[in-house]
UniProtKB/TrEMBL annotation:
InterPro entries: Glyas_Bleomycin-R_OHBP_Dase, Glyas_Fos-R_dOase_dom, VOC_core
Organism annotation: Ensifer oleiphilus
Name the UniProt record assigns to this protein: VOC family protein
Coiled-coil parts of chain: none
Domain of life: Bacteria
Domain VOC, residue spans: 2-111
Length: 128
């Protein structure tokens, strides 16, 4: 099984369109005002926005960046306001936090090998 896409609800798709394009996602479907879909620049996964009043604020989406600090600097220059600067976390990821126009929490991060293989990973024999 492989994750294809994540969809979040957003009242204002025009604001979402601008925000996620600034993050570097590439549009592949523009059916505003009801739906938009982007492809992530790396990895082939996609991300979409569905127009609606409900939702927002309860979703967290993680986007992995090979050079987190450079990416955050570029986004700040583009006008994105971050809630937290890149910081090393005790779970061995480096993260920066931002909120989209609907209040969804977006975490840009770099985890390297710790993404899928942290030192505390459950042994394969116990995962069966």
């Amino acid at each position: 099984m492989r994750l294809n896409q994540v969809t979040v609800t957003m009242p204002d798709l025009d604001a979402g369109w601008e925000f996620y394009r600034k993050l570097g996602l590439k549009p592949i479907v523009d059916a505003r005002p009801h739906y938009v879909r982007f492809v992530c620049p790396d990895g082939g996964s996609s991300f979409s926005l569905h127009q609606g009043e409900a939702g927002g604020g309860g979703t967290t989406v993680y986007f992995e960046c090979d050079d987190l600090d450079l990416t955050v600097s570029r986004l700040i220059e583009a006008g994105i306001l971050f809630a937290s600067s890149p910081a090393d976390k005790n779970w061995l990821w480096r993260e920066a936090e931002v909120f989209d126009p609907a209040g969804n929490r977006i975490v840009l991060y770099f985890a390297g090998a710790n993404r899928l293989d942290p030192p505390w990973r459950v042994p394969a024999s116990a995962a069966k």
